[in-house]
Amino acid sequence: MTAKQQLKDLFADRDPVQVAIEINGFTGFRTTVIEEMTEQEAIKLLSIHAPKPKTVEEQNNELRNDLIRNGWISKILKIAEETKIKEPGSFHKFNDWMYKSSVFKKHLNAHTIEELQKVHQQLHAVKTNNARSAKKPLTKAWWDKGVNNIKLN
Questions:
Q1: CA triple 132-135-136, angle to 5 deg
Q2: In sequence order, what are the residues at sequence separation of 6 or more whose Cβ sits closer than 8 angstroms to the Cβ of residue 88?
Q3: Mind listing the pLDDT tens digit for each residue in 65-101?
Q4: Phi and psi angles of residue 29, each rounded to the nearest 5 degrees, phi first
């Protein structure tokens, strides 16, 4: 059975107008009829509405990758708060930094694991540079270090 025929069977009980609207939006406003869709478009639309079941290994790999990603994200956020790039309870300043100054110029959740490792490395470099700069008098890092030390007394 072809993908187009499977789509017809899948959409048989739905309102034709709603189906036409969905196909029109999915094909980039090129067509509203299933027969006029390309085979690739039909396969992609079918995979959205009737996804293939995943094997146990695939599910395990996805969960493992999610745990690894979440670990890297938490490490990045911890360093960002330590270096005052991220304010506690607010992501506005951190998101601005990610779009302007980070290696990949995109928000944190859009990164792959390898990209997260590079952002982590970049934040470690920022932390090291701030520590080095704090040794020079009258720099911003020096003032911040002084403010933190005052609070400790």
A1: 105
A2: 81
A3: 999 999 999 999 999 999 989 999 999 999 999 999 9
A4: 65, 30
